[in-house]
């Protein structure tokens, strides 16, 4: 083991690898922090570059760029209310509210600090617990995935600040959007209107960019400039994070654990981890009424959770070649291209390469702190820049980003369409984040439900018979009827306290 | 003397330059192909198997022909968008692309007008036959045992997966059922979002078998969670020498596969096509290509322009039969 570790060190301490990690980190931070450009796009654009690198350097660029880009997605989320990934969409409102309160450095500091903590916790789980975690991943069949997706969808109402009815309505619009295309269990075109481009369906990322970034630009054009945030020096970013770590230690740990578990389940990934953790944080908080008003507690838990899930998401990728999300799918392609074929032999025959990958994760998460702070400082200038300058740049990034991912002009049309949809929804009080969650979860919930019924010949019993499915079902149904029970209980006791937790 | 010639040569070359500037691309055509970078369109996303194959081919073409071959991923529309971009490109040899088996399937479903005849075939590079995998806890040790159990069981009892409804591995199952004289849907198809989730569900105990290719199942097989019982091919895969063909294991002569090849838009000039096919042959024979493909477990099959055209025509007809039988065809 020690010998392997030394070999791993030797593998990553070459100039090529060091330069690759550093350059990819800066690249990931820049792409991730530009509204409209996503972490998936950042990773996809790296593939041609990795073709010319040595295997370890190639993996290093993917690891470093994706780690940085996921965190950097929090930056425009906090400063402009334009989340960079569906994962940061869960808490973008909260972070932006903190910025409006003049606590941008605390919000972003929490982002970088707890992302790094979560990332390292996830990496440790990958190093120590890969085999048992892989067993968890392989014990999930479509029955379990159905309940998981069901629980994920319920977070829409838990997280929303608006009325739960509007949140559910938004989520259903998202589910409807997820119906588009031919990539459904029946393999038949739905809502494509004969347009070839719609066959592949609507990806969550262009929809996310549209409803947040483009809609934000539209709002900016139609509303007067908000009162400027008091001009002052951006305070220390790391100050106070240690205090938060001690105060919210349990939330952070819970975020890490939830992130690691959701991360190893292929298909769920960082997006769902952030939503579930944010919802849990609110549900179990001592002060849930503060959520949505610029309260850091949820950011701690969700930030820790989504980065933990990225590292643990490599468990099924490395052991079985099953990608956890789109980024992992690209990473697997690079692994194959470089002769590091996923599978258990990677852990035995190429153990030093494996340890090199672990080390790169840890290094990437550590250098994320100083580089992230520099990036946050640079990005904070956007708060003082005139809106008339910022908004056209955002628009340009949206157009470039949506085109670059598939070299398809239709991507730009999708982003523009969702910009209009998002604007209309927000103006009428429908939370757009819930719609994005619906799009993310829609395919999974339909696929798992329909295929489960095919497998059970139409019987619903297996949804409750398999042990893990039964536990998840109990959780989902419990969470559904809990607010009702609370309401009935309070009615019976004639308690004057309003049912705030019923959300 | 030398001065004079230089001046004359200079005058001649400036005249030539003026001609190039004045008459546009006519002199450029006379130049040897390729005289500028070539775009290679891939209808699938970066990081996938098709993308990787296209990138290694492009890199080797670049080495042979001395011009950059840039891979562009034109994704969307379940592959239709990229395939359409190859077919509708200017037939000048500066836009070519990688075709995949879907081109012989999608038109039967009425999803597109595009068919193999919409292209100038250049070379077939790869074919991966479907395998038959079961979970390591499955009682069936050979494909014969599995087939007997399937025959004895009522229709729909056995569940298989590997890709979406109407995908290549679904049609492989249909073809195998028909070759055994069973109804196309005797084994129920559970659509999945690709081979990896299907293999996961197989290991999780949710399925009886998968019909994806053996390389796609490799990681799970090596993890000891699944076994491959046979391949629906004419010969064994050298990377998996222990897996017999259907013919060896149960005397059924049925083979199909997912293939990849290089083609240009219809009406490519003959000299350009000949040159590309010759260069692709060099790529195919190169050690780099062979090493790359065998490392991934991808099968290599060579077909020149005429053979590739015949191969696609035969495959197209075979797909049509299987899709009609499975009730997936609209034609």
Automatic annotation (TrEMBL), chain A:
The keyword Membrane applies. The chain crosses the membrane at residues 9-31, 51-72, 106-130, 136-160, 167-184, 204-222, 257-278, 314-336, 357-378, 390-423, 430-449, 469-489. InterPro entries: DUF112_TM. Keywords: Membrane, Transmembrane, Transmembrane helix. The keyword Transmembrane applies. Residues 18-437 form the DUF112 domain. PANTHER family: TRICARBOXYLIC TRANSPORT PROTEIN. This is C4-dicarboxylate ABC transporter permease.
TrEMBL record, chain B:
This is ABC transporter substrate-binding protein. Pfam families: TctC (PF03401). The keyword Protease does not apply. Belongs to the UPF0065 (bug) family. It comes from Bradyrhizobium retamae. InterPro entries: BUG, Bug_dom1, TAT_signal. Residues 1-30 form the signal peptide. Keywords: Signal. CDD domains: PBP2_Bug_TTT (cd07012). It comes from the Bacteria. The keyword Signal applies.
């Amino acid at each position: 083991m020690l010998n392997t570790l030394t070999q791993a060190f030797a593998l990553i301490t070459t100039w090529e690898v060091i330069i690759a990690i550093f350059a990819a980190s800066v690249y990931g931070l820049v792409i991730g922090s530009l509204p409209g450009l996503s972490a998936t796009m950042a990773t996809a654009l790296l593939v041609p570059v990795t073709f010319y690198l040595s295997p370890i350097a190639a993996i290093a660029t993917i690891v470093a760029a994706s780690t940085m880009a996921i965190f950097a997605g929090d930056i425009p989320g906090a400063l402009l209310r334009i989340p960079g990934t569906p994962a940061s969409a869960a808490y973008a409102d909260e972070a932006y509210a903190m910025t409006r309160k003049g606590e941008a450095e605390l919000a972003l500091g929490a982002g970088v600090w707890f992302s790094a903590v979560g990332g390292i916790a996830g990496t440790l789980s990958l190093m120590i617990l890969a085999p048992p975690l892989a067993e968890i991943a392989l014990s999930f069949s479509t029955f379990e995935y159905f309940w998981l997706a069901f629980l994920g969808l319920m977070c829409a109402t838990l997280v929303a600040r608006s009325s739960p009815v509007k949140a559910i309505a938004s989520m259903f619009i998202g589910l409807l959007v997820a119906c588009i295309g031919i990539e459904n269990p029946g393999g038949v075109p739905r809502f494509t209107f004969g347009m070839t481009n719609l066959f592949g369906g609507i990806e969550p990322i262009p929809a996310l960019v549209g409803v947040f970034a483009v809609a934000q630009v539209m709002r900016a054009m139609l509303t007067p400039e908000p009162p400027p945030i008091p001009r002052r020096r951006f305070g220390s970013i790391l100050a106070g994070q240690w205090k938060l770590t001690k105060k919210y230690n349990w939330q952070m740990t819970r975020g890490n654990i939830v992130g690691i578990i959701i991360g190893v389940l292929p298909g769920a990934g960082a997006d769902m981890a952030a939503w579930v953790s944010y919802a849990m944080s609110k549900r179990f908080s001592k002060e849930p009424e503060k959520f949505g008003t610029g309260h850091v507690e949820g950011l701690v838990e969700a930030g820790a959770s989504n980065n933990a899930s990225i590292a643990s998401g490599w468990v099924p990728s490395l052991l079985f070649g099953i990608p956890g999300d789109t980024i992992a799918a690209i990473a697997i392609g690079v692994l194959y291209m470089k002769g590091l074929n996923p599978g258990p032999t990677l852990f035995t025959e190429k153990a030093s390469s494996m340890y090199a990958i672990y080390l790169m994760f840890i290094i990437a998460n550590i250098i994320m702190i100083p580089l992230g702070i520099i990036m946050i400082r640079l990005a904070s200038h956007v708060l003082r820049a005139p809106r008339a300058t910022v908004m056209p740049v955002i628009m340009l990034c949206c157009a470039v980003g949506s085109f670059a991912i598939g070299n398809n002009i239709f991507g730009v049309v999708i982003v523009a369409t969702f910009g209009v949809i998002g604007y209309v929804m927000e103006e009428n009080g429908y939370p757009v984040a819930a719609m994005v969650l619906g799009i993310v979860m829609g395919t999974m919930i339909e696929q798992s439900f329909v295929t489960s019924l095919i497998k059970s010949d139409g019987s619903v019993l297996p949804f409750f018979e398999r042990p893990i499915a039964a536990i998840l079902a109990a959780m989902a149904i419990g969470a559904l009827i809990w607010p009702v029970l609370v309401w009935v209980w309070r009615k019976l006791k004639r308690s004057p306290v309003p049912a705030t937790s019923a959300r | 003397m030398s001065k004079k010639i230089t001046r004359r040569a200079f005058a001649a070359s400036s005249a030539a330059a003026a001609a190039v500037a004045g008459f546009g691309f006519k002199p450029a055509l006379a130049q040897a192909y390729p005289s500028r970078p070539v775009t290679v369109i891939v209808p699938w996303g970066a990081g996938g198997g098709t993308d990787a194959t296209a990138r290694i081919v492009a890199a080797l073409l670049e080495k042979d022909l001395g011009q950059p071959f840039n891979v562009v991923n034109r994704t969307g529309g379940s592959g239709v968008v990229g395939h359409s971009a190859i077919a509708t490109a200017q037939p000048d040899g500066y836009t070519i692309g990688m075709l995949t088996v879907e081109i012989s399937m999608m038109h039967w479903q009425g999803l597109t007008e595009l068919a193999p005849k919409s292209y100038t075939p250049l070379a077939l590079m790869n074919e991966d036959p479907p395998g038959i995998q079961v979970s390591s806890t499955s009682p069936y040790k050979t494909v014969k045992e599995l087939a007997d159990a399937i025959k004895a069981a009522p229709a729909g009892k056995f569940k298989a997966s590997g890709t979406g409804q109407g995908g290549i591995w679904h049609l492989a199952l249909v073809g195998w059922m028909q070759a055994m004289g069973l109804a196309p849907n005797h084994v129920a198809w559970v659509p999945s979002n690709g081979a990896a989730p299907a293999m996961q569900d197989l290991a999780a105990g949710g399925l009886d078998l998968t019909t994806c290719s053996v390389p796609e199942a490799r990681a799970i097989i090596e993890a000891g969670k699944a076994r491959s019982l046979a391949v629906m091919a004419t010969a064994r895969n050298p990377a998996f020498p222990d897996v017999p063909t259907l013919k060896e294991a149960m005397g059924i002569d049925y083979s199909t596969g997912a293939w990849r090849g290089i083609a240009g838009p219809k009406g490519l000039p003959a000299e350009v096509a000949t040159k590309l096919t010759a260069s692709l042959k060099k790529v195919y024979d190169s050690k780099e290509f062979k090493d790359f493909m065998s490392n991934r477990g991808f099968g290599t099959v060579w077909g020149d322009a005429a053979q590739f055209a015949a191969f696609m025509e035969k495959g197209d007809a075979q797909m049509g039969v299987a899709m009609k039988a499975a009730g997936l065809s609209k034609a």
